[in-house]
Every structure is written in C-alpha cells, then in structure tokens.
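In the current project phase, we have settled on a layout for protein records. One protein thus recorded is set out beneath this paragraph:
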Amino acid sequence: MSATLPLAGVAQRLALAGAQALAAFDQAQRGLDLGAVLDAPRVCTPEGIATSRETLAALTTLMHQHREVFAAFLTGGTRQLLEAGADLPPDERSHFTQGLQAAVERQLAEQATFWAGRERWIDAATRALDLAALHDGELRLVDGSLVVDDSEVLDRLCACVVEMDAVRAEELALMQARAARVAAGLTRLADPAAG
C-alpha cells in the first residue's frame, strides 16, 4: 500500500506535466495563426505567399521541438513510473508494468498519428502555396473574396483545403479522446474506488 501513494503521486504529476506541455504546444501553434496561411489576401501576392511559407517553416520547427520534448518526457516519465512501482508486490508490479507498456505504446502510436497528420497538413498547405505562386496573377481579391480564373486551379486549391480540414478534424478527435482518457485516469488516481 505504501508504494501505491507515491506511484499515484508520480502519475498525477506526470499527467499534469503532460497536459501543460500539450497546452504549451497548442498555444504556440495558435500563435502562428495557422488559419491565415491560405487566406485570400495571402495567396494573391508573392509577399503573402512568402509570409505563409515562413509560418509553415515556423510550424515545422515547432514540430521538431515538440518531438524532442515528447521523447524526453516519455522516456523520463516512464523511468519515474517504473521506479515508483518498484516497491509493488511482484504480481502487482507485473500487472503495472504491462499496463505501463500498453500506455507507452498507445502514446507512441497517437503521437505518430498526430505528427503524420501535421506533416500532411503542412504538405497540403505547401502544395496550395506552390499552386498559388505558379499561377501568380490568376488569383486575385475582388471585394474581399478570392477569385480564381482557372477552375482546375480552383479545384486543386480546394482539394488542399479539404485535406487540411480533414487533418484538423482528425487532430481534434485525437485530442478529445486523449483529454477524456487523462481525465478518467486522474479520477481513478484521486479515487481508486471510482475506477
């Protein structure tokens, strides 16, 4: 029983730290104003396209930083949990270790899915910007709306936006599922009888 309390404390502390790291990443992403990357005023001018490319470069850098933080967090957190669970009776420790391994594998799979989605989003945005640059002068603003002379170009731009929207929807679903799982885990840690 004495090992359970420190283990629960470590798990709660790690869950909180993970949530804070995720919130910091999300805040940094919001600071990039990703929703403006393909705004009509941006895709109609070389300057706007350059600004959007800079935003995508900053997002790529942020992704690399997030990967490093995640790797360090997962490695360090797993080590701390294993150390905290070392005093458990052998049968409980075995069950705990198996559960921890499953949780780590799930986290790795979720992060790989998230990163692959972000890379798809960046790729779709890059393709749209490349298309806009290639058709410079054919995309213009009329009364605040984007007008594209060539319907094929418009269809290709729309396909990029549809892909970006699909990635965002997948990310939201992943984050909601993760938040629900973390909340349920924290509830179980706070009140073991609840779970």
In short: The mean pLDDT is 89. The two ends are 17 Å apart (CA to CA).
